[in-house]
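User: Predict the full complex structure for these chains.
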Amino acid sequence: AQSVTQLGSHVSVSEGALVLLRCNYSSSVPPYLFWYVQYPNQGLQLLLKYTSAATLVKGINGFEAEFKKSETSFHLTKPSAHMSDAAEYFCAVGTGGFKTIFGAGTRLFVKA
Amino acid sequence: NAGVTQTPKFQVLKTGQSMTLQCAQDMNHEYMSWYRQDPGMGLRLIHYSVGAGITDQGEVPNGYNVSRSTTEDFPLRLLSAAPSQTSVYFCASSYSGYTDTQYFGPGTRLTVL
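Assistant: Here is the predicted structure of the two-chain assembly.
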């Protein structure tokens, strides 16, 4: 069965520091992988998605993620955190059967 | 384009009451889905639809019904509300389902007393 594990329910970084949010997945078929962001009291919006065209995927707001098949990982990074990056981030895997499985989410705190 | 719209934004029900959460999209997407979001559990799929007249169960379907009579609308019905259904509900749509970006509505915050 497909699953998604996000390591760390909360991550705190200082403004200007590297952001690293971890995601591991399991899938019996080549996966479609997504990162979504949720700002307070809003719905989710897409940050980036992996669809097998390139292993390094660039998204909006300076975020990027690298697909590593050998590690079954799809970690999200940003070189320099901004206060506006404070939000909850969800990793998701698109499976067969028209379903998308979401991780439990990681809340990012950015300290001034 | 309005995207995905949901009504109401907030709702309080008493145990045993029924209600319908409305969802509509104007992007002509075939695939629509309902999720519930609970703290520490991410989003869990309740029901989904791959086109008008076609629906199927997700991970947590008990206590909920759906129908899809048009491409645009995908209402979620709570048959007899229970406190365990207190949650934030999101509707989403996409062009082609699990391979594609999902577009989410703003959510409905439901409290069942």
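Chain B touches chain A at residues 4, 31, 33, 35, 40-45, 48, 50, 56, 58, 90, 92, 97-102, 104-107 (CB under 8 Å).
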